[in-house]
Amino acid sequence: MTSAPGPLRLDAEVLNVRKAGPYRQLTLVADGVPQRFRPGNVVALGVGGEGSALLGLRSMWIHRVRPTGTWGGTVEVVVDPVGPGSRWLAGLREGAVVPLVGPLGRPFALPRDPVACLLVGAGRGVAPLVPLAERLRERGCVVHVLSTAVDEAHLFAALELRRVARSVSVATTDGSVGTEGTVADVLPELLDRSGADVVYACTPTADLRVVAAVAEERGAWSQTALEVPGPCGTGLCQGCPVPIVAPHGGARVVRACHEGPVFRGDRVRWAALEGAR
Amino acid sequence: MTAWTLAGATFPARVWTASGCGGTGRELAAYLDLARIGAFVTRTITLDPSDGTPGRRVVEVPGGLLNAIGTQNPGLDAFLATELPPLAQQQVPVVVSITADEVGEYAELARRVGASPGVRGVEVNLSLPAYADDSRLGNRMGNTFQVGKLIGTVRAEVPRGVPVLAKLGPREDAVALARACAEGGADAVVLVNAVPALALDPTTGQALAGSAGLSGPALRPLALRAVSHVHAELPALPLVGVGGIVSGRDARAFLDAGASAVQVGTACLADPTAPVRVLDELDELDELDELDGPVGGDRPEGTPT
Predict the structure, then answer these.
(1) B304 vs A contacts (CB less than 8 Å)
(2) Is B158 part of any domain?
(3) Structure pTM?
(4) Do B209 and A99 lie within an 8 Å CB cutoff?
(5) Integer distance in angstroms from the first to the last C-alpha of chain B?
(6) Interface contact A241-B29, CB threshold 8 A
């Protein structure tokens, strides 16, 4: 229907599984996906193997991609083993095969000019921000990062962030490392200090709402990446409603997976979204 | 590939998509050639736009999904203006699913949908799980008189050559309802819709805001039984089977039970190529049958485990 290369559906072989704190970092062979990838895209993964009783696909942020290699194109995802599906994924061994659909969703919008950017990630929500930071740097943007988590163990990709960002600030809920506090506690000062024109965020919804509000107050743009709850990730089922203000005014309900997962923070009707959850 | 002609309309293959599982058509077209499937059935369209259920809409349960989408759709005007035209340009027959709260609304929906170019059929959704507990028209399902009258109204508004299909739930009185639909003028009956069910939002422990329906393989035995029962009692009534079909073997079972075509729904959510895969697997089974002689003769027995 469209000439743009769309998402693919393939059986992805697990090339590598690495432990990263409480997370598992999976490298999957997914030829063709890296060429289509933009930071903020997800892949939707089937779980449980053939004949699985778990039908829904799990949407995972794409962390890194490698277009070519001995094994063909690969993508990396970060799994937090908290439910039956994610535990199954985290327990996979090299050589296992996972149904994969992707890349999916609307990615982060990149600024036309080389402006200062602040990237806010919570836990494994940092995963899509690393390739984003690289693209922003290629465009001459100055990149600052705020990495948050409940505790030190759940901070993700600390070293990678230091390589791509001019500054990395850390906040943990328990204060085990960095500032003790939440996004709401540290963001306003950080935004003032960095002078960022755009804030990119991939955090739980409550913090995204804070990011959108703080950015709005200070006249910055915000790009907020919402978690896609499933079950399809492909826009087919309308199972992931997001109430927004339409571009031409008026309230609408769109899909997190298809019109998102990245939304302009000022377009999301956060009270309606959170009130419904 | 076996074409099926129903009330003057031809559907080029026996595998269709099910309502509510193919997006607007555009999303599915990214993964498969729509021209290969028998029909694309739209999400259910209402006269007025609906934002659907707020908050969590889908809960995963073993072998199935509980959906409480709440009939989110742009309303008839916007559907006809923006969604139908690009879909009608695809080389796939379009069947539009409709529902309403009152006879007058059904009549208007049927008249305007039926008159739209590119519409190959109208599927009347008589069994929204979300309405199962209230008294909306079409959900007073015990009332066969009312169901028959409603289908008669729709049939009268839709041009000849555009079949009217009535979609029912997996109810004990499915035979009586199917008979009422047939007497009202339905050209075919679609069995079955999602079954009203309850599951809790795992994060809050609360029931979903909207009434939910169970779909997916967990529903398949109920759907198969409904098709089998209705076909036994009303052998002349064309049936379309739907409910948890994920493979060619599943599709074959519904066809053997008396359906003339099948719809693939929830399977699309797990694998957007599912309709075409099911179609290919079905063709392969048919070829095996031809090679092996009479149907059933040498078909592998039992379910692979």
Answers:
(1) none
(2) yes
(3) 0.93
(4) no
(5) 28
(6) no
